[in-house]
Design a protein that fits this description.
The chain is globular and about 90 Å long. It is of the alpha/beta class and 465 residues long. The two termini are 42 Å apart.
Length: 465
């Protein structure tokens, strides 16, 4: 019998390594790739969001927890106990965002929350307490959770009346420490009438996890209550955002180069962004009805926090309006009304009941006749019971609902999405982390064996249905 050829020995080694990788609990399948490497498919349990985070998803969450633990411990932008802006930096310059702008950001968020008239609030991801310090005097009780122990300890030490703070992730609304805190502050068996997540969704790995968190929040809130999901990054604006960043870095580059760089940067973005339609889909299967409104960020300064982010208010339970309430009129904005918007809203309210004015060009995103910034629109409506919204037909447009309580009507006839509803960073994380884990696994199982190139694919990419 002749000796095995080099090709035979190589094939046998590849088969052995493939079998070792396929046996790893985080791998559903492994097979040799045409280029000599190995393709692996993650096991569904390793990347699952429910019933609890799988090990790879848990690592993604822990990575963010470590980031914020470090940022809050450093406290490099801690102006006061109630104004710790550590971690709030501009994407283009890396410099801390201006204090005045962040105060405006906080005030607008507090206004949105208090407009829902909460009495018992659970905040998931309370951070350094920018909102907790300002909300708790208006509430009968407040419970905050966060993944950073240093933030929880500082807020606990502040001894704010009628509050409690515990370490927990956003999906852990039913965890014992959260339930105990809620029972202690709100009363045994009492449910919050508002669950708040503000400026935390960008740290989520994917839509599956966002959906799991939303389902937990919706289940936690009492009938007639609200879930507020604030300061979300809008995925439709990723290319615009990164295009501006690339242009700021290289003012002399041609448009084609900037577009290519922006596309690459958007694809590699490590934060979650999504459209309101993604949240609507997540709420669709809930046992209680959920009515959603999409609010513009109305700060004065033009930054990424104003330009590319939005707030969601989810009203949970049966529609509270009495039967026979007049239907909401939907009116298209006419640029000739520029400068007369308050009068137009008052006329609509006086004569025809609730109204939604749509199609107002957002001057931060469009150069168009009649364009207004969200801030200018809010100022124009001063003294009117109204809400400044994103137009669900086109997020570059604004809308106004008057009175503010009819804001969900602006979403009720939104068109079905025609493209992706999110940019999810988790596949990028898995594609980087799983090969690292598998190479370590291989080194322990077969010391000295050269590790092949390991590439993560899904079932469809690897030729299976």
């Amino acid at each position: 019998m002749s000796d095995p050829t080099t090709a035979d020995r190589t094939a046998a080694s590849t088969d052995r390594i493939t079998a070792l990788l396929a046996a790893h609990p985080w791998v559903a399948d492994a097979r040799p790739a045409p280029d000599g490497g190995i393709h692996v498919v993650p096991h569904p349990d390793a990347v699952a969001a429910t019933p609890g985070p799988g090990p790879l998803l848990r690592e993604h969450l822990e990575q963010w927890a470590e980031v914020y633990e470090f940022v809050y411990e450093t406290g490099e932008s801690r102006h006061a106990d109630d104004l710790d802006l550590s971690g709030w930096r501009a994407s283009d310059t890396g410099a801390p965002l201006p204090e005045a702008h962040m105060r405006d950001w906080v005030e607008r968020t507090v206004d949105l929350v208090l407009a829902q008239r909460p009495r018992r609030l659970l905040e998931l991801g309370c951070g350094t307490g920018l909102l907790a310090h300002r909300l708790h005097p208006h509430l009968d009780g407040y419970v905050g959770t966060d993944v950073a122990q240093v933030a929880v300890d500082r807020l606990t030490a502040a001894a704010l009346p009628r509050t409690a703070f515990v370490r927990a992730a956003a999906h852990e609304t039913t965890a014992s420490q959260v339930r105990d805190a809620v029972d202690t502050v709100l009363g045994p068996g009492t449910r919050p009438d508002c669950v708040l997540l503000n400026s935390v969704t960008q740290c989520f790995p994917d839509l599956a996890y966002l959906t799991a968190v939303l389902h937990g929040a919706l289940a936690a809130v009492e009938d007639g209550g609200t879930v507020i999901v604030g300061d979300n990054r809008h995925s439709d604006f990723l290319l615009d955002h990164f295009g501006r960043l690339e242009r700021a870095r290289d003012p002399e580059a041609d448009e084609e180069t900037i577009a290519a760089r922006a596309m690459a940067a958007a694809a590699a973005d490590e934060e979650l962004s999504f459209t309101p339609e993604a949240v609507r889909a997540a709420c669709a299967a809930q046992p209680r009805p959920v009515r959603m409104s999409v609010h513009a960020r109305t700060m004065a300064e033009d930054t990424e926090l104003t330009r590319y982010r939005y707030d969601l208010v989810l009203r949970v339970g049966p529609h509270p309006d009495a039967p026979g309430t007049r239907p909401v009129r939907r009116v298209s904005w006419d640029e000739r009304q520029e400068g007369a918007l308050p009068e137009a809203v008052r006329t609509a309210l006086d004569g025809d009941g609730p109204v939604v004015l749509r199609g107002i060009p957002n001057a931060l995103l469009l150069d168009a006749p009649g364009a207004m910034t969200p801030y200018a629109l809010r100022r124009a409506l001063d003294g009117i019971d109204a809400a400044v919204l994103l137009d669900t037909a086109d997020p570059r447009m604004l809308a106004v609902a008057a009175p503010a309580s009819c804001a969900p009507a602006a979403c009720e006839d939104a068109p079905a999405p025609t493209g992706p509803t999110a940019h999810e960073p988790f596949p990028l994380f898995v594609g980087r982390r799983l090969p690292e884990v598998l190479r370590d696994h291989l080194r322990r199982a077969e010391p000295g064996t050269p590790a092949p190139v390991i590439t993560v694919v899904d079932g469809a990419e690897d030729g299976r249905s």
